[in-house]
From TrEMBL:
Signal peptide: none annotated. Its EC number is 2.6.1.1. In eukaryotes there are cytoplasmic, mitochondrial and chloroplastic isozymes. This is Aspartate aminotransferase. GO terms for biological process: aspartate biosynthetic process. One of its GO terms (cellular component) is cytosol. It comes from Oleoguttula mirabilis. One of its GO terms (molecular function) is L-aspartate:2-oxoglutarate aminotransferase activity. Keywords: Aminotransferase, Pyridoxal phosphate, Transferase. The keyword Transferase applies.
């Protein structure tokens, strides 16, 4: 029944393929700049000290068991997640205009939101039922939205010339999209480019979207990881909420808690301020619960318990903020060093974008041929588009990496 013309061999996921190739490479100099996970200065995964503390508390809790969580997840976790992303004193929360469901990390939140939109989003113009994503964007967005048959289009985002934001292209495409289109926005630390709009640019994007009654869907996978400040990294979302938008947020705790495999995340729907908002949130929440039930029944408990302990305890929260600064600080330091090493070598090209970009990734501007040479001759692994994970660089390999880049660019 499943012959090759019915089920052809699918290509391997490029990122996970890269990981496998790196593992196989037996050269001692090899450098992994592919995967989007934090590494310490010895290229090792890092369990955040605050996560260890929370896990210790969980182990000692005599009341813990392995019962199912409710369909919407752990209530202490979802309510703390609202406060984290919207701010403790957000009017949206006090007005009860937010409904939140715990999700299978950020991917699960994006999926739940996308599924809800396919079922229920009904803009006046039929061709507005399209989600606009940045070009380029996180590769999984494409398959995720096509899986639920949500039509997708791109808006320009990255300028090859400046290796910064193509702001005019972004705004003009969003402006000319049919009224009521869905616009996916990376809340901070854009993946894969590391390029974020400034606050002034976000303000303009919000104005244009408001005039066109577009629907924002924020993907927030790096809160606290980009600047080191949780509030600063949520600025764009909160600006849109203040402007009275109705919107959705996919919130991931994979990177900022280092809880990658535990799949801790949250989906939020924020209704616009109106006399109907509380009722709307209740109706939307009831449908989301049905979708959640049929898809995953109920979310996984462990990661949410760990995060919830931290989010709901002042002392642990302060420790978490310190851990976030450790991660973002090391990454920022690697950016500085990489740029200055390349500039010192007079490597052809400009390298200011390495420190201008923020978050885990940098779009180096290396082309596919250069990426391939780096991999085959220098044992340096990165994605084909020239994206490097800054977290893969450390004091032991940064000289070797800068030398290798210098050689392939010349
Ligand atoms: N969105 C973006 C832009 C990402 O980079 C990632 C992870 O790399 C995710 C969402 C979702 O990650 P997870 O499902 O592990 O939370």
């Amino acid at each position: 029944a499943f012959s090759a013309d019915v089920v052809p061999q699918a290509p391997e996921d490029p990122l996970f393929g890269l990981m496998a190739a790196f593992k196989k490479d037996s050269d001692a100099k090899k450098v992994d700049l592919g995967i989007g996970a934090y590494r310490d200065d010895n290229a090792k995964p890092w369990v955040l000290p605050v996560v260890k503390q929370a896990e210790e508390l969980l182990r000692k809790d005599p009341d813990l068991n392995h019962e199912y969580l409710p369909i919407a997840g752990l209530a202490d976790f979802t309510s703390a997640s609202q406060k984290l992303i919207l701010g403790k004193s957000s009017p949206a929360i006090t007005d009860k205009r937010v409904v939140s469901l715990q999700s299978v990390s950020g991917t699960g939140a994006l999926h739940l939101g996308a599924l809800f939109l396919t079922r229920f989003y009904n803009p006046a113009a039929a061709d507005a039922k399209t989600i606009y994503v940045s070009t380029p964007t996180w590769a999984n967005h494409n398959q995720l939205f096509s899986n639920v048959k949500l039509p997708m289009k791109g808006y320009p985002y990255f300028s090859k010339e400046t290796k910064g934001l193509d702001f005019d292209g972004m705004v003009s495409t969003i402006e000319s999209a049919p009224e009521g289109s869905i616009i996916l926005l990376h809340a901070c630390a854009h993946n894969p480019t590391g390029v974020d709009p400034t606050q002034e640019q976000w303000t303009k994007v919000a104005q244009v979207m408001k005039a066109k009654r577009h629907f924002p869907f924020f993907d927030c996978a790096y809160q606290g990881f980009a600047s080191g400040s949780l509030e600063q990294d949520a600025w764009a979302i909160n600006h849109f909420v203040e402007q009275g938008f109705e919107l959705m947020i996919a919130q991931s705790y994979a990177k900022n808690f280092g809880l990658y495999g535990e799949r801790a995340g949250c989906f939020h729907f924020v209704a616009a301020p109106s006399s109907d908002a509380v009722d709307e949130v209740s109706r939307v929440g009831s449908q989301l619960a049905i979708l959640q039930r049929s898809e995953i029944s109920n979310p996984p408990a462990y990661g949410a318990r760990v995060a919830s302990r931290v989010l709901n305890d002042e002392k642990l929260f302060a420790q978490w903020e310190e851990d976030l600064r450790t991660m973002s600080g090391r990454i920022i330091e690697m950016r500085k060093q990489l740029r200055s090493k390349l500039e010192a070598k007079k490597t052809p090209g400009t390298w200011n974008h390495i420190t201008d970009q923020i978050g885990m990734f940098s779009f180096t501007g290396l082309n596919e041929q250069q990426v391939q040479t780096l991999r085959e001759e220098y044992h340096v692994y990165m994605t084909k588009n020239g994206r490097i994970s800054m977290a893969g660089l450390n004091s032991h390999n940064i000289d070797y990496f800068a030398e290798s880049v210098d050689k392939v660019v010349r």
